[in-house]
Amino acid sequence: MAQRSKKDSVAILLSRSSNYEKYDYDTRLLFAKRAKQYAEQSRKDSLVLKSNLQIADLYKERKFFDLFLKANHDNLKYAERVGDSVYQAKIYSKMGDFYEKILSDSAYYYYYKSEKIYRRLHDAYNTASILLSIAIIQKNEKDFIGSEVTSVEAIKLLDSLPKIDKNIRKKAYLYNNLGLVFDQLEQQQEAINYHNKALVLKQSLEGDNSATIDNSMNNLGAAYKNSGNYKTALELYKSVLSNKNLKQERPSFYALVLDNYANTRYQSGDKEQTLKLYTEALNVCDSIGESYNSIIINQHIAEYYNDMKQKDSAKKYAYRAKNISEQYHNDDLLKSLLLLSKIESDSAAVQHYKAYIHLNDSLQKSERAVRNKFARIRYETKEIEQKNIKISKERSWLIILSGGLLITFFLLFIIITQRNRNKSLQFKQQQQQANEEIYNLMLLQQDKIDEARTMEKRRISEELHDGILSRLFGTRLSLDSLNFSTSAEAIQTRGSYLDELKTIEQDIRKVSHDLNIDFVSNSGYIDIVKTLLEKQALAYNIMAELKHDDNINWDAIPNKTKIHLYRIIQEAIQNVFKHAKASKIEIKFYLENQELFLEISDDGIGFDLNKSKQGIGLKNMKSRLKEIHGHLKVISEKQNGTTLIINTPINNT
Fold it and tell me: What CA–CA distance (Å, rounded) separates 590 from 595?
């Protein structure tokens, strides 16, 4: 529901951003930007692109052309990235519209790109629309044959579509363009035929189409005028000018039609009111700042005064036409120069005629270059398309090969991973077996300790029974025999037996003391470590010393801890032998703050802790200590040996 709400909000905001009557520019731009935010949140690419296009159009409206171009270039990249061909074609079309009046070859390039996409999408209407834009550019650049071919192609596409208003309107515009093309080619009858076709189609459209109908009637009037049929031309112009609101609603077009009407009357020989009509048309252009349309009116007035032999007035309007047309550097300037060469005399006339010839050559070269550029754009685009097809095929093969390689690598990865897992499992099994061996060794050592304890108890028992008790029994019998004797000898004998009792007392105390001291206590684990040190010292030809705190109750320490410490000592001795070049290793066990400490020191070459990488040995030690909640501290300097300090809780369960 939230996503749908955002989509609805985007549509509402975009609608508001297009409402020119109700909202000002800044508000409409804000609506468009907010629509883009919602579109991005909804993750709907088409809405994001629609919002981006609206923002670009608003930049163009305010004539922020740099922002407009940047926005549309960004839009193109985005549309290409998400693979939206429809929006790519729309953006190319908008870029063509932008360049149409300022850079025809760029406009042609973007229109051509758009047309190719629409053609691929089998969108006949939009293909025909873009072809119309291309045909108009070709006509303006005097590529009349190209414009004719393009227009006919577009008409054929529209013929395949239903006869609805938008298709009929577009066909009328194409007929109109063909009429203008043939008028330029001085094939007036063909021009008249196409303008009539355009006019009939426009008149069949629903709604108010007076403006576009007036345009066709004006163009048709021009074709009739150029064919010499002034009467029909004047009737057409009068029909257009009969609209009382034309001057107010379309002042620029009104001035254009009025000038055509005046010029047709003039060419037909009716010079009455001609100057007045020209002057009115010129005043309308001047009042609205329409300088371009005023060029031809000034030329017509100059021709009028020149025919009337009023040279000064003729020069005034001819130079005025020339000065304005210099801003555009096109056929209007060419006509102005030719007109001045007729009005001026002597060197001035020659100078203008030379300028006319030079400009004519320049314009012809420029038009030829543009036409060549059009052809080159078509060729290069087709070449690029062929390359893209080739690249697409190569990419397909690359994807297939890459897929095969990926599958191969994936299978290899699985095999290698499985092998590593098997190795890891085997290693763990070996570790388990080794730990079991150590545990069994500890149990065996415990059995030996228990056996020693039993033997010692038996020895003490025998000593008490066979030695001390026998002596006590004999002494007691002897004292009993002397109990009632008072002789000096008896007294002396009793004294010796009392001394014997004292000796027996001391022997009993000794046995008692021996019983209180377990001579095998804590010897099991330490004996195992001693055995390890003796074997390793002998194997590696190194001195090993073991120190331990007698207060450590190894029976209270978990077997898991003892096994891991045993393994760490093994690992440490191997590292000393491999890397330290030591002659002596010392191992200490002691208690501190309810923790068991193990120190392993050597007198080897040491290493720089900051520069050396952590080896597999230290990693294994840390891994083992992690299991028993222990910690490792390494102290080492070059040439000063290495010390490992390990601490772990006595009870780490």
Answer: 9
**Residue 316 belongs to some domain of the structure:** yes
Among 117, 113, 116, which Cα is nearest to 95's?
113
| Of the residues 300, 316, 344, the one at which a domain ends | 344
Record the tokens describing residue 303, joined without a space: 């021709």
Q: Look up residue 90 and give its two tokens.
A: 């729309």
Give the three-state DSSP class for 546.
strand
Sign of CA dihedral 337, 341, 345, 346: positive
For residues 470 and 545, state if they share a domain: no
Q: Which of 318, 344, 370 is the last residue of a domain?
A: 344
Q: Is 151 helix (H, G, I), strand (E, B) or coil?
A: helix
* C-alpha neighbours within 13 Å on the C-beta side of residue 302: 24
Tens of pLDDT, residue by residue over 370-409, are: 666 666 666 665 555 566 556 666 777 778 877 788 888 8
The reply to whether 439 and 489 lie within a common domain is yes
Residue partners of 238: CB distance under 8 A and separation at least 6: 261
State both tokens at 430.
Answer: 């070996």
pLDDT 10s digits, 511-521: 655 555 444 44
Q: What is the pTM of this model?
A: 0.58
Give the tokens for residue 42.
């909804």
Residue 304 counted as domain residue: yes
Q: At residue 631, what are phi and psi to the nearest 5 degrees?
A: -135, 150
> Do 87 and 49 form a contact (C-beta atoms < 8 A)?
yes
